[in-house]
Amino acid sequence: MSLALIDTGPMVALFDDSDIGHRHYTGLLAQGWHLTTTWPCVVEVTHFLGARAVQRYLRWVAEGGVVVYPFDVSDLPEFAELMARYTAPPRTEMDLADASLVWLAQDTNTLNVMTMDVRDFSRYRLPDGRSFLIH
């Protein structure tokens, strides 16, 4: 089984049948991927889902559907550095959730990412220049 980081959009799609990515991401999940994310992504998902879906989602997280990788307050300067690097005109701003996933990729040496944010994750790089494999 392969490891993948999972961004907000795919997690929303997993719990919203009407989402354009629902079929794609449920199909990927059925392939047996091990998923990892961060708390900023978990929080964003709860913002986008309705109350009943949030309850199902939180139970899924609690049951190990996705591993929520911890970070410490001492990691925040790295997040801020990433956000500054990828927030320069004419680019869009990197948000905290994306910064946390790029940091997580560096920390775990994981290039696979499930995201709907193809434009941004196509330009993000690990320190050694490697790019993400977007699913």
Total number of beta strands? 5
- This entry's quaternary arrangement is single chain
CATH architecture: 3-Layer(aba) Sandwich
Sequence of strands across the biggest β-sheet: 3-2-1-4-5
**Sheet having the most strands:** 5 strands, parallel
- Mean pLDDT, as a whole number? 94
Shape: globular
Question: Span between N and C termini?
Answer: 15 Å
CATH class type: Alpha Beta
SSE pattern, N- to C-terminal: EHHEHHEHHEHE
Integer count of domains:
1
What is Rg?
14 Å
Helix/sheet category: alpha/beta
CATH superfamily: 5'-nuclease
Percentage of residues assigned to helices: 40-55%
Weakly predicted, low-confidence segments: none
Strand content: 5-15%
In CATH terms, what is the fold-level topology? Rossmann fold
Number of helices: 7
What would you say this structure looks like, in words?
The chain has 135 residues and is α/β, with parallel strands linked by helices. 50% of the residues lie in helices and 11% in strands. It has seven helices and five strands. Strands 3-2-1-4-5 form a five-stranded parallel β-sheet. It is globular. The two termini are 15 Å apart. The mean pLDDT is 94.
In short, what is this structure?
Helices cover 50% and strands 11% of the residues.
